[in-house]
Amino acid sequence: MSDAERPQILLTNDDGIRSPGLWAAAEALSALGFVTVAAPREQASGSGRSMPPSSDGSIRREQVSVGGQEWTVYAIGGSPAQTVQHAIFELMPELPDLVVAGINYGENVTTSVTISGTVGAAMEGAAFGVPALAISLETDREHHLSYSDLIDFQVAAHFAQLFGGLLLTKTLGPDVNVLKVDVPSSATLETPWQLTRLERSRYYLPRGPQRQDLAEPGRVDYEVISDATGFTPGSDAYTLRVERAVAVTPLSLDMTSRVDFEDLRRMLDGAS
After folding, report:
1. pLDDT digits (tens, 9 = 90+) for 143-191
2. Distance between CA atoms of residues 201 and 111, nearest Å
3. Could you tell me the domains of the chain?
């Protein structure tokens, strides 16, 4: 079977074209189909599904070694979501069969997933009508923006291949647009996975700038919550941190509140 006849997979991430997590995913997914790798030129964590007007959109071909083979990959001047757009419009002959974002340095859990460039890229792929997977590996805070070679992505790559294969062969229904997969740092190939919901409580706790003058440069930082036992059983954060299982969360592009519209209308009418 020629490359053109194999399932076409678009692989991206938000850590940038140099991320070892990207290459671990590329090697694993190549067993499922032909993988086109396109990723932001720079580190783009925390980009969500943003479309910055300042992005230049330039596309640069690069050669990298993946699994002992030379690959042509694409570094793109843009956010992860913009990278997906450029790849679909300019690099692939037709819509891919699957979009994968990851493997991310650091878990993407709770309702803060709207901040995640990994999830944002998968959501953008889903908006084109393509099955999408966002996969992340739990790491210490210090590694979130790194390309540390201390992180072993092989188990996470196994789960990327597992769920990528499922998305290529199964239809999950009209309201499942993205599978979000978070792998514990302690996971093995035998670690079970569980379907989960997004945890509503904060996981990444924002910390305000420490400065004397508001005109000084300053940024809001974050820390990871230390005690996870208060999270809701069945949520992604609880499953990952407390049960130490792989958390698989189905996400929908439809962010409409699941509320009874008649009840809400009566409340709003009464408020007037």
Report:
1. 998 889 899 999 999 999 999 999 999 999 889 999 999 999 999 999 9
2. 8
3. 3-203+231-271 (3.40.1210.10)
